[in-house]
Amino acid sequence: MAGFKNPPPFAKGAKKQEEKVEQVNQEEISENPLTETVTDENPTDTKGEKSMSEEKPKRERSKVNISQEHIKFVRQNVKKMGYTEMAEQLGITRNQINRILQTLKEGMRSAAVQADPDSYGTKENKKGEKVYDWTQPKSEMAKKVEAKIESDLSRPAESRPGAGGSGGGKVQQALDSELEDLLKDL
Prior knowledge:
- This protein has 186 residues and is mainly α.
- Helix content is 47%, strand content 7%.
- The chain has a two-stranded antiparallel ribbon with strand order 1-2.
- Helix 3 packs across helix 4.
- 8% of the residues are buried.
């Protein structure tokens, strides 16, 4: 008769572990931590516990399906409004605004590439694969596509992240200013 001489290791003591888990669960239930309230009376509390009101709620995913009206609104207002403003007016998320614009841009560029595979220059990505470089339009169609994207589907250059050169954010500007002050003293 073939079989195990000894039961598999996971089967040993499985019943004992289940009993321990039940005991621990019973102890936790009897303490009932949900009825305790955290107050700010002792600001030097070292436990680092947060009250329920201090925790950030997770954002809910938008359940709104994008319609033709959403797309038209985004196209008409991309130059005038920020992503957050458009999202609030439409009742969708900023990511959905971004996805609308990126999908339209990708579709236009794909159409140019299908018409002429050499319409854009290529570059090597981090994986070593050759990919199209959208900053290098070669054909007339690709140049028209990029001009249309810039005029109709891109927000103004000054409102884009990183506008104003490399590291143009407020923090980077403050750091650069402080660095200049430090270097003056040398």
